[in-house]
C-alpha cells in the first residue's frame, strides 16, 4: 500500500490485488489525479479511514470479499465517495444484482480502454465536486433562506424588466406597436404561440418578452434551433435520452422539455423539421409528456411552446411538407414580425442601441452616427434584418477612427443601397444612400435633408428643442423645414 498523501478532492483510490492492474490504472490517471492504491479490502478500508477520497475504483474479484460487497460498506460509512467497480464479463450479472444496493456510479468491463477509464473518473470527480457544492448550498439555503428569497425576487424583477415589451426598441407609431400590444394581451394566457417572420427580425426577443410577461416567468425559458441538427439529435436534445440508448450515450441526458417544466420552450425554425420529428412533437403536445430516447416510461411535463419560422407554414401544410394537426397545435395565436425594411422609422433608434452595445463590447467610445451614416442605413433594405444591421454597426465602429461613425465605415452594399428603399416620408424611390436617381440637384438635396430631419427628430422622440440645437437651427427655422417637407403633421 502506498503512502497516504494530504487531503484532496481529486484523490482516487484504486483497490486491486494485482499489482500490474494497479500500475496500469495509475499510469492512466496519474497526470490528472492523486492516485492511491491498495491490494485488498482491508487496506482500502484503512486508507478511507485516514484519507479524504473522491472516487474508489474497485476490482470485483478480490481475496476475502467481492468489490460489490466492499462498495456496499463504503456506501454506508463514506456515502460521499463515488463508487466504481471493474469486472470481467463473467461477473457482470453479480454486479447488476448489487449495483443499486452498493450505489455504484458506474462499472467498467475488462479490458478497459485508457481514454474511457480516464473520462469516467473525470466525470465521477465532477459529480463528487457537484455533490459537495450542493451540500454547501443546501446548508446556506437553510441558514439564509429569507435573504436568498428576497434576492431571488430582486433578480427576477430585473430580468422581467430587461425583457419587457417596452425594451423592444421602436419609434412612436412603429408597426411593432401592434405586435407588442397583441403579444402583451395573450402573454398571461397559456396559449401556444407561432411567431412568423424573416430570419433576424427579432422573433426570439418577442418570445422572451411573452415568457417574462406570463405567470411562467419564474421558471425556465429554453430555446432550440430546430434547423441546426438532425432529427435524432434534436429528439435527444428536446426529449432526453437514457444511457446506452445509442452509440455515444454514456450517461442519462435530461431534455429541454424536462428542464423547462413549468416554463417555456421556444422552438425556432420549426418549419425546417422532418416529418418524423413532427409526429413525435405532436404526441408530446397532445399528451403533455415526453419519452426520452431509450426510456420505457413517459415523463409528464408542463410547458408552454412558442414556435417560430421564416417559412409560410400554411403553404407548407397545403403542399404536405408540414403536418396540419401540428400546425393547429402550434398556432394557438399567430404573430407576424415585420421585417426591418417595413419599419425604417425604427432604424435610427435600433442602430443607436446597437451602437452603444458595440461600444461596450469592443471597448471603443461611440457617441453617434453622422447624418450621412443614418441616411445610408435608412436607404438600405436590410435583407438580413436586425442581425445584419448589428453586424454592420460592429464592423463600422471597429473601422472608425473617431467617436462618430460615418457612412464610409459601412460595407459597399450598404453605401450603394438597393432598389425600392424607403426615403422621403416613407415613399419608395430607387437610389444610392437615399439619393433619388432622377430630378434636379435641388430635389436630390431636399431628399437628403428630409431624411436627416426625420432621423434627428426620431432620435430625440420628436423633441424639437433638442433637434434644432443639434442641427444648428432655430425652432422657427426647424418648423419651417418640417412644413416644407410634409413632416410637421407627424
Walk me through the structure.
There is one protein chain. With 490 residues, this protein is an alpha/beta fold. It folds into three domains: 11-129, Rossmann fold, CATH 3.40.50; 163-338, Rossmann fold, CATH 3.40.50; 342-484, Helicase, Ruva Protein, domain 3 (Orthogonal Bundle). Helices cover 48% and strands 12% of the residues. The protein has 19 helices and 16 strands. The strands form five sheets. Strands 2-1-3-4-5 form a five-stranded parallel beta sheet, sandwiched between helices. It has a five-stranded parallel beta sheet with strand order 7-8-11-6-12. A two-stranded antiparallel sheet has the order 9-10. Helix 14 (371-379) packs across helix 17. The chain starts with 10 loop residues before the first strand and ends in a 6-residue tail after the last helix. The relative contact order is 0.06. Residues 1-8 and 418-434 have low confidence and may be disordered.
Main sheet: strands, sense, barrel: 5 strands, parallel
The radius of gyration computed from the alpha-carbon positions, rounded to a whole number of angstroms, is 32 Å
Q: Which class of secondary structure composition applies to the elements?
A: alpha/beta
CATH class division of the largest domain: Alpha Beta
* Second-tier CATH architecture of the largest domain: 3-Layer(aba) Sandwich
Sheet with the most strands: spatial strand order: 2-1-3-4-5
Mean pLDDT: 84
Number of domains: 3
Count of DSSP-assigned helices: 19
| Uncertain residue segments | 1-8, 418-434
Which overall shape is indicated by the principal axes computed on the Cα atoms? elongated
Amino acid at each position: 500500500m502506498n503512502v497516504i498523501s494530504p487531503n484532496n478532492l481529486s484523490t482516487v483510490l484504486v483497490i486491486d490485488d494485482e499489482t500490474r492492474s494497479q500500475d496500469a490504472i495509475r499510469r492512466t490517471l496519474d497526470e490528472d489525479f492523486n492516485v492511491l492504491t491498495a491490494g485488498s479490502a482491508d487496506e482500502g478500508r484503512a486508507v478511507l479511514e485516514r484519507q479524504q477520497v473522491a472516487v474508489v475504483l474497485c476490482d470485483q474479484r478480490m481475496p476475502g470479499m467481492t468489490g460489490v460487497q466492499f462498495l456496499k460498506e463504503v456506501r454506508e460509512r463514506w456515502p460521499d465517495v463515488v463508487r466504481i467497480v471493474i469486472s470481467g464479463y463473467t461477473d457482470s450479472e453479480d454486479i447488476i444484482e448489487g449495483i443499486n444496493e452498493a450505489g455504484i456510479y458506474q462499472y467498467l468491463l475488462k479490458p478497459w480502454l485508457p481514454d474511457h477509464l480516464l473520462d469516467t473518473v473525470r466525470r465521477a470527480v465532477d459529480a463528487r465536486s457537484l455533490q459537495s457544492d450542493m451540500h454547501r448550498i443546501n446548508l446556506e439555503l437553510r441558514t439564509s433562506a429569507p435573504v436568498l428569497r428576497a434576492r431571488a425576487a430582486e433578480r427576477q424583477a430585473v430580468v422581467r424588466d430587461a425583457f419587457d415589451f417596452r425594451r423592444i426598441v421602436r419609434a412612436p407609431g412603429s408597426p411593432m406597436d401592434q405586435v407588442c400590444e397583441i403579444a402583451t394581451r395573450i402573454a398571461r394566457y397559456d396559449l401556444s404561440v407561432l411567431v412568423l417572420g424573416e430570419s433576424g427580425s427579432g422573433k426570439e426577443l418577442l418570445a422572451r418578452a411573452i415568457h417574462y410577461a406570463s405567470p411562467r416567468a419564474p421558471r425556465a425559458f429554453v430555446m432550440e434551433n430546430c434547423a441546426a441538427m438532425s432529427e435524432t439529435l434534436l429528439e435527444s436534445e428536446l426529449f432526453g435520452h437514457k444511457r446506452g440508448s445509442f452509440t455515444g450515450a454514456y450517461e442519462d441526458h435530461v431534455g429541454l422539455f424536462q428542464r423547462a417544466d413549468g416554463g417555456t420552450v421556444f422552438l425556432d425554425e420549426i418549419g425546417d423539421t422532418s416529418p418524423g420529428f413532427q409526429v413525435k412533437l405532436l404526441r408530446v403536445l397532445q399528451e403533455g409528456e415526453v419519452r426520452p430516447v431509450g426510456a420505457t416510461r413517459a415523463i409528464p411535463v408542463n410547458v408552454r411552446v412558442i414556435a417560430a419560422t421564416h417559412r409560410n407554414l400554411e403553404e407548407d401544410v397545403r403542399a404536405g411538407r408540414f403536418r396540419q394537426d401540428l400546425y393547429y397545435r402550434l398556432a394557438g395565436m399567430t404573430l407576424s414580425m415585420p421585417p426591418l425594411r417595413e419599419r425604417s422609422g425604427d432604424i435610427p433608434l435600433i442602430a443607436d442601441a446597437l451602437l452603444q452595445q458595440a461600444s461596450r463590447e469592443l471597448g471603443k467610445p461611440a457617441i453617434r452616427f453622422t447624418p450621412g451614416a443614418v441616411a445610408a442605413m435608412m436607404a438600405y433594405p436590410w435583407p438580413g434584418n436586425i442581425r445584419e444591421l448589428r453586424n454592420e454597426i460592429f464592423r463600422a465602429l471597429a473601422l472608425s477612427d473617431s467617436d462618430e461613425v460615418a457612412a464610409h465605415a459601412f460595407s459597399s452594399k450598404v453605401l450603394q443601397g438597393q432598389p425600392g428603399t424607403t426615403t422621403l416620408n416613407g415613399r419608395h424611390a430607387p437610389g444610392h444612400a437615399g439619393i433619388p436617381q432622377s430630378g434636379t440637384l435641388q430635389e436630390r438635396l431636399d431628399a437628403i435633408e428630409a431624411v436627416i430631419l426625420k432621423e434627428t427628430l426620431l432620435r430625440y422622440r420628436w423633441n424639437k428643442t433638442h433637434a434644432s440645437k443639434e442641427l444648428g437651427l432655430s425652432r422657427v427655422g426647424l418648423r419651417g423645414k418640417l412644413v416644407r417637407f410634409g413632416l410637421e403633421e407627424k
